[in-house]
Amino acid sequence: MNRHRLLLPALAAVMLVACQRPPAGSDMPAKPANTATAAAPAASAAAPAPTTMKPATAFTPPPESAIPEGPFGDMVREGRELFVHTAQKAPAYVGNGLACANCHLDAGRQPNSAPLWGAYGMYPAYRSKNKHVNSFGERLQGCFQFSMNGKAPPLDSREMLALEAYAYWMATGAPIGVKLDGAGYPKQGFKPPQPPDYARGETVFQRDCALCHGSDGLGQKVAGRYVFPPLWGPDSFNWGAGMHELDNAAAFIKANMPLSRGNTLSDQDAWDVAMYMDAHERPQDPRFKGDLAQTRKDFHDTPMSLYGTTVNGHLLGSRPARRQGSR
Ligand code: HEC
Ligand code: HEC
After folding, report:
1. Residues 292-316: tens digit of each pLDDT
2. Does the record's keyword annotation contain RNA-binding (predicted)?
3. Atom of ligand 2 nearest to the CA of 105
């Protein structure tokens, strides 16, 4: 198709820029050139009780070129492949058109997009989402079930081992149990000046997002594979995913989108476009048992979730998106 010829060079250019330029406001290069070791000074400072507030701790993961030879390095590389080409490498566990790295940018290295190096040392951890202490493996399983709209690989599966090896390796030298600078999303204190608004969000979307994600938000494919991932619809994350919550989406978008131009949207624009994105239908929450109101009460009882509420005249979750001919 004609558009593909246009799209491929455009994508290459976009990716090149994205790889070379660190997001504005980030104090770390997106690709830490060849600096194998990096600033982790506060890591060696005496660790006070974990409940006290600590200054941010800087960390830079080792470069990919430092993945060792041999069986361990092979497993790390396998995990990286899985993280970047999830549907191709773990088809049994993926139910949409996304890859882990679509949301955890730069193959899980980019600060402020929930990088793997910022996550690994923070588990086991209690999660209010499922009300128990989760191992790191269970946290990965959650992203398969919700963000990837798929099935959780068993904890003792090869897929899980590979992903854990990759995350463990990327956290080489990071302190345990310390929230690192750039871990997770920059959500703290990130509030909309005015309540987010659907109509304003649509304007932002058409201006700043549609070029890549499509004016219908369904992403763009080349040769059957997404080069720009869908933001809603049957191939996107489902209603149980973290990205459907406004604060997660707004913080991710503010820090990382438009791709390679993170931190250029105003706070209001980021919240408005997050609301617009998350007010579209997507695959059903897998915990849904037939009653929308009950599912909202059980799992979405927060103003950050629009699931089970009416926006723009539509009751969200009442007509979830389905892939043609599946499920
Ligand atoms: C649609 C976007 C999306 C996709 C795709 C996705 N994730 Fe996530 N992931 C998130 C969000 C949102 C969070 C929560 C971040 C937060 O709360 O700060 C998260 C959290 C995580 C965490 C914990 C991060 C932390 O700092 O505690 C890990 C680990 C993780 N994801 C791994 C994966 C893996 C592995 C895959 C692929 C199988 C994947 N994710 C796919 C959006 C996504
Ligand atoms: C220059 C192209 C481009 C623009 C413009 C852009 N994005 Fe993206 N976006 C991408 C790409 C490519 C990815 C996947 C990144 C990867 O895999 O490395 C992505 C990922 C995402 C994701 C996570 C994956 C998913 O599909 O859910 C969200 C959410 C997102 N973008 C929202 C937005 C929003 C909102 C805007 C407008 C403010 C925007 N993007 C503008 C290219 C773009």
Report:
1. 999 999 999 999 999 999 999 999 9
2. no
3. 18
